[in-house]
Design a protein that fits this description.
The complex is a heterodimer of chains A (611) and B (234). Chain A is α/β, with parallel strands linked by helices. Chain B is an alpha+beta fold. Chain B contains 5 helices and 10 strands, in the order βαββαββαββββαβα. The chains are: A alpha/beta (611), B alpha+beta (234).
Chain lengths: 611, 234
C-alpha cells in the first residue's frame, strides 16, 4: 500500500496520530535481516496502550535482539475499524504497516477482563481465525501475558499459550527456542511442547477440563507427559538489574501517562485481601536508590520528558522513601522536572515529604480508603485507621492542597448498610478537617472527588471464593449512598453495575465462556470499557444463546473444596494461605504487613529465601 | 539570547497536531540540555513561540520558532545538535541569533505558499474540479461559512486569494495539485482548509469523496527577519 493510500486512510479518522507512528525512539529494522517478527498487541486504543510501562519494557527488550523485530498494534478506534472493514485493509502494525497476519508471534497483554473482546476483534480485523483449532502452523502464534493471564481459561479456545508472571524474565529464552524451532521446521505442537518446559509458560491445549453435574469443575489435568500439573509463574529475581528501557519510545499523542514512569519496586507486602496485584506480584523486590537515580537520569536525558512518576503498588512503602524523594528533589528541582507519586497509602504519606515533592508542580492528592468503616477496612485488611487518615489529610491541607480524590468500593465481603453510609461520613470528616484549619493557613475551598466502584472478586486472592453482589444489590447500595452524598464541594462519581457484573464473570470464568466470547465478538462487542460502546443487552443475549448463566460465575459463593478453574496456575501463594485469609477476613481479623514478619503466604517456599 | 530556528515538518510527522508539535519541540530542547529560559508560575516550560501553527495533515518546508537562552552560548553546531535528537520527519534547517527585543514572529507573518494535492474517488468529480477552477476564480465573490467562537459567520474569500491555480493534474490517479498563495497572520488570514472547502463545494464534490493534503512551501514575513533583527556572532 503506497503512502497516498495510507494518508487518505488516516485523513478519514479522528486522531490519526494513533496509527501513523514515527515516534522518537521507535524501532525500525530491515525486514530482510530479521528472523523473528514479533507483534506486541495491546487490546485497547493507542493512548491507553502507550501509557503501559510493560509494553515499553517488552518492546525495547525484545528489540535489543538483532534477530527479532518487535512492532506494535493497538485496538483501532471505531472510526478506523469501519474504514478498515470498508476498504478491505487488514489491521496493521505501526512500525512497518504490515498486516498483523504477517507476524510469527502476536503477544498481547491482558490488563483487564473486558479487553478480551478487543483482542479477539484485533485478530478478526487481521483476518486471523479466532479459534486455535482453525489456525494452521502458518498463522501467527497467539500468546498472552499480564495479570488476567493468571486465569486465562475464558480464552483457552483462542490462545496458543500464556506467559504467567514476569514476561521479561523468559522472553529471550522463549525467542531462542522459537528461532531454533523455526530453523528446524518442526510442527507447532512440537514447539509448544518445548515451550511448556519453561517455567511460567502455560499451554491450554495440554490440559483437559472435565465438569461435574452441578457444572463445577471436576478436574483439570495434563493430557500428556512432561507437562506440569500446576504451572507456576516466572519472576525476575534480580530486579535491581532488571531491564529498563532508558531509550524509551516517546509518543506524540498526549497519552494518559505522558512521563517517565520509574518502577521502584515490584510486589507488595500489605496483603489487602481484595487486591489481586498484591498477590500476583509477590515477592517484593526493590531497586536501590542508586539504581533508580541512574536509570532516571539516563531516561530523562534520552527522552526529554519533564515529568517523572515513581511507580509501584504502594510507593510510600519503599524502604527509604524519604531518602529517595529527597535525593530526587535535590537533583531535579533546578531542571524543573516535576515528580509525582501515585498510589500512596494514607498512613505512609506525610505532608512534609509530599510538600517537597510538589514543590515544582502540584499534582492531585489521591487516597483509596476503599471502605467507609474501620470494621470493614479491617475485614479487607486495609488496616488504616481513621485518625491517621484525618491527620494526614490535615497535614496535606496545611501544606496547600485543597483537592482530594477518594476511592471506595461497594460490595466488599460482610458489607452492611452502615458501612456504606460510613463512606459519606468519612468524606464529611475529611471535609471538616479542611475547614477546621484557620482560613489564613489553608486554601479557600475544599474540592473533593469521590468515586465508588463495584468490588469484583478475583482469582488468586482470598476473595476468589466470594460471590459478587447481584446487580440489584449493587444498585440498592449505590442509591443508598447517593442520597447521602450531597455534600458541598464534593463531586460523587459512580457507574452502573452491569459492566462490573461481566468483569466478575470473566474474572472467575472457565473455558466454557469461550463460545460466549466468540459470539460476542461476532455480534460486534468491543471497546466495552467505553460507555458509549458497551452494550449489556447484546452481551446478555450472547450468554443466553450459548446457554450460560452469568450468575454462576459472578455471584456464586465457591467452596473450599471446589476445584477452581485456575487451580492449575500458581502465583506462588498457597491455596491454604488464601483460604486462611478469607476466614480471618470474615472474622474481621487483621494480618500485619509481612515486612514486619513472614506470614507464610508460600512465596518464600516456592522461591527459597527470596523475601 | 534570542534564537530563531527554522525547521521542516515532514511526511513522518504529517499527522501530529500543533500542540503535539509544541510538546515535541520542548522535549527536543530538553534533550539538548540547553540553558533555556523558563516561564514563571505554576507550570514552568521553556519560553518559546511558533510563527504559525501547522494543521494535522499539513507538511511544511518553512517553519519557524524562537527560543530564549539565559546564558550566552555559541550556537555553532546547534542545528546539528537539534537534529541529532529529533524524530525522523522534523528537520532543523538553521539557527540564528536575533535581537532580544523585537515583535513576535506571529505578528510579522504575512503570507504562505501552498502546494495542495487533491485526490478524488470519482472520475466525474476530478473532471468537474479541473474544469471548475477558472469559474471559481472568476466569481465576484466567494461566500463561505466560517465557524468562529461566537458561532458561524459568512465571509467573502475572493479578496483574500492572492493567487491560485492548478499546477498539475494526473488523469490516471485522479489527482490535482493546486498552487495557492494566501495571506497568513493577524491582519488577514485564509486557511487552505477554508479555501478548499469552498472550491470543492463549488465543484460539487462531496467531502467524503475526496481528500486533500496541504504542503506549505513558504512562510512569508513582512520583513526578512534575519536581515532586520539578526545579530552577528563574533
Amino acid at each position: 500500500m503506497n503512502n497516498i493510500i495510507w494518508n487518505r486512510l488516516f485523513n478519514k479518522v479522528e486522531k490519526p496520530v494513533r496509527y501513523s507512528g514515527g515516534e522518537f525512539n521507535m524501532v525500525k529494522k530491515d525486514l530482510d535481516k530479521v528472523e523473528i517478527r514479533y507483534l506486541f498487541a495491546f487490546p485497547d486504543v493507542y493512548e491507553v496502550g502507550m501509557s503501559h510501562l510493560g509494553l515499553k519494557i517488552m518492546y525495547h527488550l525484545i528489540n535489543k535482539r538483532t534477530d527479532t523485530w518487535c512492532e506494535r498494534a493497538f485496538s483501532p478506534w471505531v472510526d478506523m475499524e469501519e474504514q478498515l472493514i470498508n476498504r478491505n485493509i487488514p489491521l496493521f502494525s505501526i512500525e512497518s504497516r504490515s498486516p498483523i497476519s504477517d507476524f510469527d508471534i502476536i503477544g498481547a497483554t491482558l490488563q483487564y477482563e473486558m479487553s478480551y473482546t478487543n483482542l479477539l476483534n484485533m485478530l478478526k480485523l487481521g483476518n486471523i481465525p479466532l479459534l486455535r483449532e482453525e489456525r494452521s502452523d502458518e498463522h501467527p502464534l497467539i500468546m498472552v501475558g499480564g495479570p488476567c493471564a493468571y486465569n486465562p481459561e475464558p480464552l483457552a479456545d483462542f490462545i496458543d499459550l500464556a506467559v504467567i508472571g514476569d514476561g521479561e524474565e523468559i522472553i529471550n529464552q522463549f525467542l531462542d527456542l522459537f528461532k531454533e524451532w523455526k530453523q528446524n521446521n518442526g510442527s507447532r505442537d512440537e514447539f509448544l511442547y518445548s515451550a511448556a518446559q519453561i517455567q511460567g509458560i502455560y499451554v491450554p491445549s495440554f490440559y483437559d477440563v472435565t465438569y461435574n453435574d452441578d457444572d463445577t469443575v471436576k478436574s483439570i489435568k495434563p493430557n500428556r507427559e512432561g507437562v506440569p500439573d500446576v504451572v507456576t509463574k516466572t519472576i525476575v529475581t534480580d530486579f535491581e538489574n532488571a531491564f529498563y528501557p532508558e531509550d524509551m519510545i516517546v509518543p506524540y499523542m498526549n497519552i494518559i501517562h505522558d512521563r517517565v514512569v520509574m518502577e521502584i519496586f515490584r510486589g507488595c507486602t500489605r496483603g489487602c485481601r481484595f487486591c489481586q496485584a498484591g498477590m500476583l506480584y509477590r515477592p517484593i523486590r526493590e531497586r536501590s536508590i542508586e539504581k533508580i537515580m541512574s536509570l532516571t537520569e539516563k531516561t530523562l536525558k534520552s527522552t526529554g520528558y519533564d515529568e517523572l512518576s515513581l511507580s509501584s503498588l504502594s510507593t510510600g512503602d519503599y524502604s527509604d522513601i524519604h531518602g529517595l524523594v529527597e535525593t530526587m528533589m535535590n537533583k531535579y528541582f533546578k531542571d524543573r522536572i516535576s515528580l509525582s507519586l501515585p498510589s500512596l497509602r494514607i498512613d505512609s504519606f506525610s505532608g512534609k515529604y509530599a510538600e517537597q515533592v510538589q514543590k515544582v508542580r502540584k499534582t492531585g492528592l489521591t487516597f483509596a480508603p476503599e471502605a467507609g468503616s474501620q470494621r470493614l477496612r479491617d475485614v479487607i485488611n486495609k488496616g488504616v485507621n481513621e485518625d491517621d487518615m484525618i491527620k494526614s489529610s490535615t497535614e496535606a491541607f496545611e501544606a496547600g492542597w485543597d483537592r482530594v480524590k477518594l476511592y471506595f468500593m461497594l460490595g466488599l465481603p460482610t458489607e452492611t448498610d452502615e458501612d456504606v453510609l460510613g463512606i459519606a461520613a468519612l468524606v464529611r470528616k475529611v471535609r471538616s478537617a479542611f475547614y477546621s484549619i484557620p482560613k489564613d493557613k489553608r486554601k479557600r475551598g475544599f474540592r473533593g472527588v469521590v468515586s465508588t466502584s463495584y468490588f469484583v472478586p478475583k482469582a488468586h486472592t482470598p476473595y476468589q471464593w466470594f460471590g459478587q453482589d447481584t446487580i440489584e444489590e449493587f444498585s440498592r447500595k449505590q442509591a443508598l449512598l447517593g442520597s447521602n452524598m450531597r455534600i458541598k464541594g464534593v463531586d460523587y462519581n459512580w457507574h452502573e453495575a452491569k459492566l462490573s457484573h461481566l468483569e466478575a464473570v470473566f474474572a472467575r470464568g472457565d473455558r466454557r465462556l469461550g463460545k460466549v466470547l466468540k459470539r460476542a465478538v461476532m455480534e460486534g462487542c468491543r471497546m466495552d470499557g467505553w460507555d458509549e460502546h458497551f452494550d449489556y443487552n447484546k452481551w446478555m443475549k450472547c450468554f443466553e444463546d450459548e446457554g450460560v448463566d452469568t450468575s454462576f460465575y459472578a455471584n456464586r459463593h465457591m467452596n473450599k473444596d471446589d476445584i477452581l478453574p485456575w487451580s492449575h496456575i500458581s502465583c506462588g501463594v498457597s491455596e491454604d494461605y488464601l483460604w486462611q485469609e478469607y476466614q480471618k477476613s470474615l472474622d474481621g481479623e487483621i494480618t500485619p504487613d509481612c515486612r514486619e514478619g513472614c506470614i507464610n503466604c508460600g512465596v518464600n517456599t516456592t522461591w527459597k529465601g527470596v523475601c | 539570547m534570542h534564537i530563531l530556528i527554522k525547521y521542516e515538518k515532514g511526511e513522518e510527522v504529517r499527522f501530529i497536531s500543533h500542540l503535539e508539535m509544541l510538546r515535541t519541540m520542548q522535549r527536543i530542547l530538553r534533550r539538548c540540555q540547553l540553558p533555556l529560559r523558563w516561564s514563571k508560575g505554576f507550570n514552568p516550560h521553556p519560553v518559546m513561540s511558533f510563527a504559525s501553527a501547522t494543521a494535522v495533515g499539513t507538511l511544511s518546508d518553512d517553519e519557524y520558532l524562537d527560543i530564549y537562552f539565559d546564558l550566552d552560548i555559541s550556537i555553532n553546531g546547534l542545528t546539528e545538535k537539534l537534529n541529532a535528537v529529533s524524530p525522523v520527519g522534523i528537520k532543523f534547517m538553521s539557527t540564528d541569533e536575533i535581537a532580544e527585543k523585537m515583535p513576535s514572529l506571529t505578528a510579522m507573518l504575512e503570507t504562505a505558499n501552498y502546494d495542495i494535492s487533491v485526490y478524488f474517488d470519482k472520475k466525474e468529480d476530478y473532471n468537474n474540479a479541473v474544469n471548475a477552477i477558472k469559474g471559481f476564480l472568476e466569481m465576484n465573490e466567494i461566500i463561505t461559512t466560517k465557524r468562529s467562537k461566537k458561532g458561524f459567520r459568512e465571509i467573502d474569500l475572493k479578496p483574500m486569494i492572492k493567487s491560485m491555480s492548478i499546477k498539475s493534474h494526473d488523469d490516471d490517479n485522479l489527482c490535482i495539485v493546486i498552487d495557492a498563495f494566501l495571506p497568513m497572520g493577524s491582519k488577514m488570514n485564509l486557511s487552505p482548509k477554508l479555501l478548499m472547502g469552498a472550491y470543492l463545494k463549488y465543484s460539487n464534490v462531496e467531502d467524503k469523496d475526496a481528500d486533500y493534503f496541504c504542503h506549505r512551501t513558504k512562510t512569508g514575513f513582512i520583513y526578512d527577519v534575519i536581515e532586520k533583527w539578526g545579530v552577528e556572532e563574533f
